[in-house]
Design brief:
This protein is an alpha/beta fold and 127 residues long. It is 36% helix and 20% strand. It has a single domain, classed as Response regulator (Rossmann fold, 3-Layer(aba) Sandwich), CATH 3.40.50. It is built from 5 helices and 5 strands, in the order E-H-E-H-E-H-E-H-E-H. A 5-stranded parallel β-sheet has the order 2-1-3-4-5. Helix 1 links the parallel strand 1 and strand 2. The radius of gyration is 13 Å and the shape is globular. The mean pLDDT is 80.
C-alpha cells in the first residue's frame, strides 16, 4: 500500500512512518505540485495532508484524488477546524476526513487506520 504524505516540514511523514508499519510505503512530498504529480503519475492508495495556513486550491486537490481509479481517500490534518478552514469541500468530493492538530498519537493512529480502511471500501465518505 502506498500512502502519500503532503507536509511542508516532513514531521508528519516521520510520525506516520512510525505509526504505520508492515506493508505501507510512505511517499513524502512537500508541495501541492509534487502531490498532484504523484497523483497523476503514480496514484497512491490514500493521502494524508498537513494543511498549511496558506490559501491553496484544496478542492481541486480533493477532486483530483476523487477522480482517480480507484479514488484516493484523504485525511486532512489542520490546526484550524474544518468548518473554519473554508476548504469548500462537499460530500461529492469523495472521502475526506479531518484531524484537528495537535492530535494525540492514539487519535492520529485511529484516523490513519480509518483512512486505510477506506481504501478497501467503495462507499464515499465525508467527515
Amino acid at each position: 500500500m502506498r500512502l502519500l504524505v503532503l507536509d511542508q516540514n516532513q514531521l508528519l511523514s516521520w510520525v506516520v512512518r512510525h505509526e504505520l508499519t508492515g506493508g505501507v510505503e510512505v511517499v513524502a512530498v512537500r508541495t501541492l505540485e509534487e502531490a498532484a504529480h504523484e497523483l497523476r503519475e503514480r496514484p497512491p492508495d490514500a493521502a494524508v495532508v498537513s494543511l498549511p495556513p496558506a490559501h491553496l486550491p484544496w478542492r481541486e486537490f480533493q477532486h483530483l484524488c476523487a477522480t482517480r481509479q480507484p479514488p484516493v481517500p484523504v485525511l486532512y490534518e489542520s490546526c484550524v477546524p474544518p468548518e473554519k478552514a473554508d476548504l469548500t469541500l462537499d460530500p461529492a468530493d469523495g472521502y475526506a476526513a479531518f484531524l484537528l492538530k495537535p492530535a494525540k498519537r492514539c487519535e492520529l493512529r485511529a484516523a490513519l487506520e480509518a483512512l486505510l480502511a477506506a481504501t478497501r471500501s467503495p462507499e464515499p465518505f465525508f467527515d
